[in-house]
Amino acid sequence: ERKRFYQNVSISQGEGGFEINLDHRKLKTPQAKLFTVPSEALAIAVATEWDSQKDTIKFYTMHLTTLCNTALDNPTQRNKMQLIRAAVKFLETDTVCYRVEEPPALAELQKNEWDPVVAWAEKRYNVTVGSSTSILGPNIPASTKETFISHLASYNMWALQGIEFVITQLKSLILSMGLIDRHITVEKAVLLSRLEEEYQIRRWGNVEWAHDYDLCELRARTAAGTLFVHLCSESSTVKHKLLQD
Amino acid sequence: MAALGAPLRTLRALLRELRYAAGRSYRDSPAYRHVVAAFRAHRVTSEKLCRAQQELHFQAATYLCLLRSVREHAALHREYHGRGERSPQEVAGLVGFRLPQQPGGKG
């Protein structure tokens, strides 16, 4: 574990975007590229992560920094289409489409909690998704996949890294789109993703050092991914309205 | 639209998290200034359903969730997973033994 070796964290604007300065040194990625982000708000959030480190640097708490490093270095060397296909592939095993038949209480809970969000996605994207109790999972029509592929193609490479990250964390494309489209909050998305675990916890009891630990970690990663996507795909303009007398 | 509650509540909770993260000088931090400025800029609007305002509120709520979860996760880690293994001396001490002293070193 590295000790905190810097006093001040600050942001500066360079050619490629916003950079992070640790004292007088410029932050670099693991592959030694200059750390530049396109959005000032994202740079501020990353700087806050570095400034929050106390005596030692706990990299496992710095989710936004990690996401930026992934976007800059692209260590898996995937292009845009490969990322999109990896994301859409999750639909075949989407958590909210995979239903149980037993125990009936859990099946009922899944129906009540997951059906609305599937219905929302079907309406919003004009697709058929459905759900299945078969071990093979739901049968997703090709047109549905094509719709999601072309929708995701409208996002830039950075946002896509974030989207794919959130999908991998939640194990669900539907829940991730719910987050990206601001239909559900992070807490709700995580709850829906962990529905069966929550059911078992309610039945058998909560184990703080395991359940809460995992819950907090999943919330942190999902929140970081969602924020990352929004900050990388927004363009904010301030329109001043004329004051009416 | 996600069920978010009052923006003021989110703002206050977010500023509280920034205070926990930064310490004394949190009001000078870029994050604090940015958040306060963003909320001020989006406050004045004549529309009932201002999309930009809702987008900002959602972003703020997401960032709040991030800061809060990271802090809680770190606290849980310290509490349950941070201690590491006991040294041989401590293990021996658990049952009341002491490790033998060997002036010439082992074997």
Could you characterize what this model shows?
The complex is a heterodimer of chains A (245) and B (107). In chain A, 54% of the residues lie in helices and 6% in strands. In chain A, strands 1, 2, 3 and 4 form a 4-stranded antiparallel beta sheet that branches. The N and C termini of chain A lie far apart (61 Å). Chain A is mostly helical. Chain B has 107 residues and is mainly α. Chain B contains 4 helices and no strands. Chain B has helices at residues 7-22, 30-41, 51-81, 88-94. In chain B, helix 1 packs across helix 3 (51-81). The mean pLDDT of chain B is 86. Chains A and B meet through helix 1, helix 8 and helix 10 of A and helix 1, helix 2 and helix 3 of B.
Overall shape of chain B: it is elongated
State the end-to-end distance of chain A.
61 Å
Number of helices of chain B: 4
Biggest contact: A-B, 39 and 34 residues
The total count of strands of chain A amounts to 4
How would a crystallographer describe the biggest sheet of chain A? 4 strands, antiparallel
Please identify the structural class of chain B as seen in this structure: mainly alpha
Q: What is the string of SSEs of chain B from the N terminus onward?
A: HHHH
Low-confidence stretches of chain A: none
Rg of chain B = 25 Å
Subcellular location (chain A): Mitochondrion inner membrane
Keywords (chain A): Chaperone, Membrane, Mitochondrion, Mitochondrion inner membrane, Transit peptide
Protein name (chain A): ATP synthase mitochondrial F1 complex assembly factor 2
Pfam families (chain A): ATP12 (PF07542)
